[in-house]
Design goal:
alpha+beta
Length: about 260
């Protein structure tokens, strides 16, 4: 169980072999489907992000809609990946078991593995100085396989009116996809590939773009993930492959432009 009484299911696309600029993406870096379930009264609200090939998008989306699961966004997260990867964001409100079955039936039309991810070895050397990166970032990350990850909550409350019958807006916990996600994957020699997304309100978008670009970090896409969120959020994905500590300083400069929760 995640903070905020969220039950989260991870479905990494371990079947995929995707490269960006000669870097093979680990599932934890950018190929991780996930689903988050939260009980609210007699209902369960569900949000998720499904990693799909281009050929999987239409059959999966069609099956989800038949089961009452609604798409809220469909887009890329990175650039120049091979093969192309699409990300389908979804939400639903109702009976949790029925929603879970509808999502399972949809994903069964893809090659998404349903087996539980292999356990990771704690405290393994992943090829970058995570303590130094933590110090630069001013945050504490965690190892997931060979990827170092940060999940950094916003400092404000996010609600979504689509998740309540009365339209007043249910609070969306950070674990349901509204936290900054920042991932490092070692590429050797102290370098790392980084990707993830910043979760921003409108006034933060261009200051964060400027901070990232000034530090050699490419902005790869900017879009929404939800339809009826308050405040309305913009999700900015990024990419770079360079000295890990240099990139951490660039990411910290961008984070300093965001209203994040103080630790």
């Amino acid at each position: 169980m995640q903070p905020g009484d969220v039950y989260k299911v991870s479905l990494p696309r371990t079947d995929m072999k995707v490269t960006v600029g000669g870097v093979e993406l680990k599932p934890a870096l950018a190929l991780g489907s996930w689903l988050a379930f939260k009980k609210t009264g007699e209902m369960t609200m569900v949000m998720g992000d499904l990693v799909l090939t281009e050929d999987e998008v239409t059959p999966v989306l069609t099956k989800l809609e038949e089961g009452g699961v609604e798409p809220t966004a469909l887009h890329n997260h990175v650039l120049h990946e091979s093969p192309r990867v699409m990300y389908l964001h979804i939400h639903a409100m109702g009976d949790g078991a029925k929603i879970a079955k509808a999502i399972h039936d949809g994903l069964a039309l893809s090659k998404t593995p349903f087996a539980a991810p292999a356990a990771t070895t704690p405290n393994q050397d992943i090829g970058i100085d995570t303590k130094q990166i933590d110090q630069i970032m001013g945050q504490s990350g965690k190892v997931n396989g060979t990827v170092y990850q940060y999940s950094i909550a916003r400092g404000d409350e996010i609600t979504d009116s689509a998740m309540t019958s009365g339209g007043t807006g249910a609070v969306i916990p950070p674990a349901m996809g509204v936290a900054q996600a920042i991932n490092f994957q070692s590429t050797g020699g102290g370098k790392a590939a980084i990707t993830g997304d910043f979760v921003l309100i409108a006034g933060e978008v261009n200051p964060v773009i400027k901070a990232l670009r000034e530090n050699g970090i490419e902005v790869t896409t900017l879009h929404s993930h939800m339809l009826t969120d308050t405040p309305h959020l913009f999700f900015m994905h990024f990419w770079a492959n360079d000295d890990a500590e240099k990139l951490a300083r660039g990411l910290r400069a961008a984070l300093d432009k965001v209203n994040v929760k103080k630790s």
